[in-house]
Amino acid sequence: MRKRLIVCLLAALLLLAGCTKPELPPLPTITPKPTAAPAPAVRGEVTAAVPTDAPEAEPTPEPTPEPTPEPTPRPLQPLQINEYFIEADFFEPAEEQGELTSVAYETLDYSSGEEVTKQLSVYLPYGYDESRQYDVVFLLHTSGGNENTWLQYTHAYQFQDTLEYVSAKNMIDNMIQRGYCEPLIVIAPCGYINEAAPYIHNSARDYEQFDYEFSQDIMPFVAEHYATYAQNGSHEALVAARDHFGILGASFGAYMNYISIFATHMDLAANYAFVGGGALDYGYLYERWASRDFLNYDIHCLYIIEGEVDDRFGPESSYLTLRGYATDFFSDDNLHFSIIYGAGHEPRSWVNGLFNSLQIFFRDAPYPIPYEV
């Protein structure tokens, strides 16, 4: 019994000795791994040392936008009045093209007081710069036309051998690019209060409407929104800049120019052209000007143009009357007359009239245009 107890105690001691946690060896010392040498450069590669204390890279600057191209200054060409056929390449697209847009403006139907929104066709020359000042020409359309007639549409132009549809806008671009006239702004309004139905109109009402609309709405709008010689759209500012405004009308537009502007608002512009219309009555003009205190205003240019076979309105007699009796206002320096040979009451007369007028409007006098009476 005693032997069995001793054997059990010895077995228990041996079991406890086997369960004791062994002592772990110390952790090995870890030596940092040496930095690997850079791989040798492959032939043709470029390697650059990057300093560890290099500053942060600066952000890439935004690219500078390309400046708007400016037209090359050109000397003004000598006066080249065309009474026959304009060279065909004037109607091709120019390298330096102006911008043509339609712009809305607010006016009234002055007979009813109803507010009306209408459109202007606006031509801005190549390289147009808001910091400059530009001369302005207003173009008044023929019967049945609208603000698009002069600049947006093409015109049936009878050359010597062929009939072609030509662009007055292209012609203006080329005239400016070639130095036939200075860069200028061109504005084409609609002479009818009802733009949607131009053939349904009353001439007397349209003339009276345009009298107010042109002076109260159109000219102030142009002066306020574009780089003209007028400092603002006030009547005083427009009058002060009148030498830099010109108005050309053809056929119906010539009559509108005569009745609604030349006779009643001669203080607002000093340059006028009447193409195929507007038999000017000097007695009527003098009476209107005297009643409005216009007799002290100078006229820089009055230009009358008609087709050789256009006998509908008698512009030549108007020229002769003004030349003979209105000597207080007109001389060979500011009163001009041209015949477009071979043309009738047709677009070739209108387009040639515009070509000639853009050259003489705003040009320093004297620049007499020979005409044998």
Give structural notes.
With 373 residues, this protein is of the alpha/beta class. The protein has one domain (88-360): Rossmann fold (3-Layer(aba) Sandwich). Helix content is 28%, strand content 18%. It has eight helices and ten strands. It has helices at residues 2-19, 168-177, 203-225, 235-240, 252-262, 282-291, 315-325, 347-360; strands at residues 99-109, 114-124, 135-140, 154-158, 163-167, 184-188, 245-250, 271-275, 301-307, 335-340. The strands form two sheets. An eight-stranded mixed sheet has the order 1-2-6-3-7-8-9-10, with helices on both faces. It has a two-stranded antiparallel ribbon with strand order 4-5. α5 links the parallel β7 (245-250) and β8 (271-275). The chain is globular and about 85 Å long. The N and C termini lie far apart (168 Å). Mean pLDDT is 83; it is low at 1-51.
Global mean pLDDT: 83
Approximate shape: globular
Q: What CATH architecture do you see?
A: 3-Layer(aba) Sandwich
Q: Which class in CATH terms?
A: Alpha Beta
Assign the CATH topology.
Rossmann fold
What is the count of distinct domains? 1
Count all strands and give the number.
Answer: 10
Q: Order of strands across the widest beta sheet?
A: 1-2-6-3-7-8-9-10
**Share of helical residues:** 25-40%
Largest sheet: 8 strands, mixed
What do we call the CATH homologous superfamily?
Alpha/Beta hydrolase fold, catalytic domain
What's the end-to-end separation, in Å? 168 Å
Count of runs of 4 or more consecutive helical residues: 8
In the predicted model, the low-confidence regions spanning at least 5 consecutive residues are 1-51
Strand residue content:
15-25%
Computed over alpha carbons, the radius of gyration is: 41 Å
Q: What class would the helix/strand composition place it in? A: alpha/beta
Order of helices and strands: HEEEEEHEHHEHEHEHEH
